[in-house]
Design a protein that fits this description.
Layout (H helix, E strand, L loop, with lengths): L5 E5 L4 H11 L6 E6 L2 H15 L4 E5 L5 H9 L5 E6 L19 H19 L3 E8 L22 H9 L9 H22 L4 E5 L15 H14 L9 H13 L8 E4 L8 E3 L10 H12 L3
Parallel strand pairs: 1-2, 1-4, 2-3, 4-5, 5-6, 6-7
Antiparallel strand pairs: 7-8
Helix pairs in contact: 1-2, 1-8, 3-4, 4-6, 5-9, 6-9
Length: 307
């Protein structure tokens, strides 16, 4: 495996992205970490805090909004030399208007979780600006978490048309609960990653769920009652029953996925059945759909229609 020295992390100013940057800085051989962030002020504050926490001045701000394809292309144009690895961490439930369409014709929730990252990866590959590993922040919701009331995503055909309807929101409707949509979108991205692994065998494509993680800001834009339930009440009680773990543990999964060659390209790693915490396993043993190459390629082809 190519030695990883430089890494770009999207959504790096807070939560899992920030913690992943902090942990990466302690890894031997890491010489530069790009902090991909939407807001320059918050990015600079994060950079200063990371330097203070780690004692290493190896962080560089890169303004990048994955919900905006133009911002993604501009960010790639700012890179003067190849980077070794990318952590596709940004995401969430789509802001205040998750089902509103972007200029690319996809919903905000799809743009921030999938399309922006697809545009970023394709642009980096086309410009020969990534050399080793792409790691996508997957989610156990892609296979369902019944104990948390998250149903298994239902796909009727896994056709290009169905994945297109997931991207533009037609599959769900304008009043759909963002949490119900989220798992299907994460499933689509997981299949896309596996297809990309076969398209570009010289690179590693790892989907790694950080697990159910406290202290993240992915639920900030939910309605008030759900935000209180999932972010605050859930963060207090879910760890007690093994349904959530710390942001440090979540970010450490990213680091392992990036640096441990035992994690195979094209595979999706997450917690064992029934829980979003604990040891990670290859999800193919839990859900055969993850290994369906037709579904994988259909997801990729649908995404590329918008990029």
């Amino acid at each position: 495996m190519h030695t990883i020295k430089t890494v770009l992390i999207t959504g790096a100013n807070a939560g899992l992205g920030f913690e992943a940057a902090r942990q990466l800085a302690s890894q031997k051989g890491i010489t530069k970490i790009f902090l991909g962030c939407r807001n320059r002020k918050k990015a600079v504050e994060a950079k200063d805090k990371l330097i203070s926490l780690t004692g290493k001045d190896i962080f560089e701000v890169l303004i990048l909004d994955v919900s905006d394809s133009n911002s993604v292309h501009n960010a790639v144009s700012e890179l003067s030399s190849p980077i070794d690895a990318v952590v596709l961490n940004a995401g969430g439930t789509g802001g205040k208007t998750p089902h509103q369409l972007t200029q690319d014709g996809v919903t905000n929730i799809f743009a921030s979780n999938v399309l922006g990252h697809a545009v970023l990866v394709e642009s980096l590959i086309k410009s020969q600006l990534v050399t080793s590993t792409i790691l996508y922040a997957g989610s156990e919701t892609a296979r369902g978490i019944p104990k948390m009331g998250v149903a298994k995503p239902e796909l009727s055909s896994t056709s290009i048309e169905e994945f297109t309807a997931i991207a533009n929101g037609n599959k769900f409707g304008s009043n759909a609960d963002p949490l119900d949509v989220y798992g299907t979108i994460k499933l689509t991205a997981t299949l896309w990653m596996s297809s990309m692994a076969r398209q570009y065998p010289h690179l590693r494509f790892i989907t790694m769920s950080p697990g159910g993680t406290t202290g993240t800001n992915g639920m900030d834009d939910l309605p008030v009652l759900k935000k209180i339930l999932f972010k605050y009440i859930g963060s207090l009680f879910m760890p007690l029953i093994g349904m959530m773990h710390s942001v440090e543990k979540g970010a450490s999964r990213y680091i392992e996925g990036l640096l441990d060659p035992r994690f195979e390209s094209g595979h999706f790693y997450a917690s064992r059945a029934g829980s979003p915490t604990g040891p990670v396993v290859d999800q193919l043993c839990l859900e055969p759909l993850f290994g369906n190459v037709v579904a994988q390629d259909n997801a990729r082809n649908a995404i590329q229609k918008f990029s």
